[in-house]
């Protein structure tokens, strides 16, 4: 849902989009090295989408907000979850301006990084070389934890599914007037109530 919102807003955002494509490869688990590359095509690897991991195709426009997906350099404010705005889209770099933390207003250059994530069910580690950012017009509730915002639009076309999620979402905003909620029921129809998940065993 977050990806769909981000992609739609980007399509309405002024300017020309620049697409960056990752280089993907795999590293088989010990004992599984006999699997040949043909068993996992390039197209299959490119289509893998993982939470908190950059996509194969990253489309950006100058002026759009992004969020950093990895810790890079805490001394200059480049930490996982840092929000930034794109200033320059180069061939070999992305220039961004930091929007959060103690380094607000600083401009930095982001390089491509080689990132990896393990797929236990497929017995391999995906290795992806890509810029470690994602569009951030919208973000997940979990990713918003710890932030304080003046205005929040909460999209609950799918209701929360974990203990405390609704509280986290509603408590990000500083005033009631700054909160707008789109809620839907189990049939996807607009509703006037929200689900609040509570696990009583947590309090035992």
TrEMBL record:
Pfam families: Pif1_2B_dom (PF21530)
Transmembrane portions of the chain: none
Coiled coil: none
Occurrences of domain DNA helicase Pif1-like 2B (ranges): 43-89
Any single GO BP term: DNA replication
Gene3D superfamilies per record: P-loop containing nucleotide triphosphate hydrolases
Recorded GO CC terms: replication fork
Top-rank taxon, per record: Eukaryota
Protein name per Swiss-Prot or TrEMBL: DNA helicase Pif1-like 2B domain-containing protein
PANTHER family on file: DNA HELICASE-RELATED, OS03G0423850 PROTEIN
């Amino acid at each position: 849902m977050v990806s769909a919102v981000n992609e739609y807003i980007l399509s309405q955002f002024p300017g020309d989009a620049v697409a960056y494509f990752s280089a993907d490869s795999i590293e088989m688990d010990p004992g599984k090295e006999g699997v040949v590359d043909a068993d996992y095509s390039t197209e299959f690897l490119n289509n893998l989408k993982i939470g908190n991991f950059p996509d194969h195709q990253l489309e950006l426009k100058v002026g759009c907000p992004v969020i950093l997906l990895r810790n890079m350099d805490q001394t200059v404010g480049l930490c996982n979850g840092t929000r930034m705005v794109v200033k320059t889209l180069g061939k070999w770099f992305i220039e961004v301006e930091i929007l959060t933390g103690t380094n607000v207003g600083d401009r930095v250059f982001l390089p491509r990084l080689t990132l990896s994530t393990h797929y236990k069910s497929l017995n391999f580690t995906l290795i992806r070389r890509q810029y470690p950012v994602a569009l951030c017009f919208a973000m997940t509730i979990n990713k918003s934890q710890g932030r304080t915002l003046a205005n929040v639009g909460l999209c609950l076309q799918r209701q929360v599914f974990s203990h405390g999620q609704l509280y986290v979402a509603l408590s990000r905003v500083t005033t009631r007037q700054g909160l707008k909620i789109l809620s839907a029921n189990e049939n996807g129809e607009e509703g006037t109530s929200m689900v609040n998940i509570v696990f009583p065993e947590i309090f035992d």
